[in-house]
Amino acid sequence: MKFEELPTPCYVIDEALLERNLQILNGVMQRTGCKIVLAQKAFSMSYYYPLIGEYLSGTTASGLFEARLGYEEMGKENHVFAPAYREDEIDEIISICDHIIFNSFSQLEKFKHKALQAGKKVGLRINPQCSTQVGHEIYDPCTPGSRFGALADDFRPELLEGVTGLHFHTLCQQNSDDLDTTLRAVEEKFAQWLPQMEWINFGGGHHITREDYDIPLLESCIKRMQENYGLKVYLEPGEAVALNAGYFVASVLDTHQNGMEIAILDTSATCHMPDVLEMPYRPPLFGSGEAGEKPFTYRLAGQTCLTGDVIGDYSFDEPLKCGDRLVFGDMAIYTMVKTTTFNGMPLPAIAVKEKNGDCKVVREFGYENFKTRLA
């Protein structure tokens, strides 16, 4: 199948671009001896887990279902962190995960003995209280009142027996200068506990495969913890694995005028690309410009009843017409994992573009996927 023959709406993962990202990440592993695991919350397309497993050390999960996916489909190291674990799930989680990371000393006190009895690595999430994000409090685990991680002032040393690692996660789409800043805060607040640990997990949010990312500084941060404290270092990026490795193809259903030109697409920001509204951000669109940059400007909008179901304003060289296909970039991460069927919107198909340029649909969805979500 050719790219232009794919159905719409449709996510498309470009295998060559995905593998390029994996090669960059693997290079960091090879040069430093650190381990990098896939954060499935950003990209959990198990079709590519065999390929990802060739380059990375395993997966990390946010709960039971992701943990099962990593265990069943990749079968390498399997880490898990959750703000709190359910009693009716913890036994299964422990049985399929290698590293169990707890968010608080109360969770550690409640479940640590089970994990240790099963021979698993036990970790504690810490909060270095070092905010490096500007204008995105919703994504800042160090914001005042955050539920994430134990504070240095609240440490309970008597509960650290059996704890072999510390975990922090403070970044979101950031460069390694912010990691360096955070790491210095970690050392300042938790230095007395680091020498008794075996490993440290830098969490996610590292945009390692972004063109301007400072990889040498990242590797310096890794080596500092290895050399100063004898720690094994883990990173768990999600976005960096599939950054700029996917597309989203949609079609124009109708054009409309209300003070400006509007194009209704066979997709939805709220259902199919929710980070457009949550982040918020304006996804790149091939062949387009900023509003007013090219002769014909349109507001691209979705099919749902939500007035704010708007992708953004884009300009084009020619007027849009029904049937035109639009291709959005960087649509592999935080898209498929967040889709909904609000308003009965069908879920987009999922396709792959193989390294030889051929495309194929690997998953399609229909009415039953909507119906079976409800009682």
From TrEMBL:
The keyword rRNA-binding does not apply. Residues 10-331 form the Orn/DAP/Arg decarboxylase 2 C-terminal domain. It comes from the Bacteria. Its cofactor is pyridoxal 5'-phosphate. Its EC number is 4.1.1.96. GO terms for molecular function: lyase activity. Keywords: Decarboxylase, Lyase, Pyridoxal phosphate, Spermidine biosynthesis. The keyword Iron does not apply. It is an enzyme of class 4 (lyase). It holds the Pfam family Orn_DAP_Arg_deC. This is Carboxynorspermidine decarboxylase.
